From TrEMBL:
Signal peptide: none annotated. It comes from Pseudomonas taiwanensis. Residues 20-114 form the MaoC-like domain. InterPro entries: HotDog_dom_sf (IPR029069), MaoC-like_dom (IPR002539), MCH/BMMD (IPR052342). This is MaoC family dehydratase.
């Protein structure tokens, strides 16, 4: 099944989508640490992490946001590429090795762009959820999306 990318005009407030899943592994956390240069011990040193208040190795908060953004792009509900205007994002619970995550996203507020005719702004409230149904991170992504060409 091919995905039809949506223009701003195709979206409706309240539209929802659930992403595929992503399994967090020790190797992926370590790769993220290498990619970003953030080798804080609770993310990379199991002995240190096990003795911490988390009791185990945990993923970086921004790792979770990065995974949420990637999962969002794998939803069947996708927009024609536009411009990210920013995120408001909360880290609610730790993300642990072997967590299986997915994103629940919906279309929130929408408005035509005031500064760019031919574009619209959409706000996507989203939750990153683990295999226990717990929200581990949540927030909103603001996007500027192309509108359909007016004939």
């Amino acid at each position: 099944m091919s995905v039809v990318e949506k223009f701003w005009d195709d979206a409706r407030e309240g539209d929802e989508c659930i992403s595929p899943t992503y399994t967090v592994t020790r190797e992926r956390i370590l790769a993220y640490a290498d990619l970003t240069g953030d080798h804080t011990p609770v993310h990379v040193d199991e002995e240190y992490a096990n003795a911490s208040h988390f009791g185990c190795l945990v993923a970086h908060g921004l790792f979770g946001l990065s995974i949420a953004d990637g999962l969002k792009t794998q939803c069947q509900y996708r927009f024609v590429p536009g411009m990210s205007l920013g995120w408001t994002w909360d880290f609610v619970l730790p993300i642990k090795v072997n967590d299986v995550l997915h994103v629940r996203m919906r279309v929130g507020a929408m408005r035509p762009s005031k500064s760019r005719p031919g574009w619209g702004i959409v706000v996507l409230p989203s939750e990153l959820i683990n295999q226990h149904g717990e929200v581990v991170q949540r927030g909103e992504h603001r996007l500027m999306v192309p509108r359909r060409a007016q004939a």
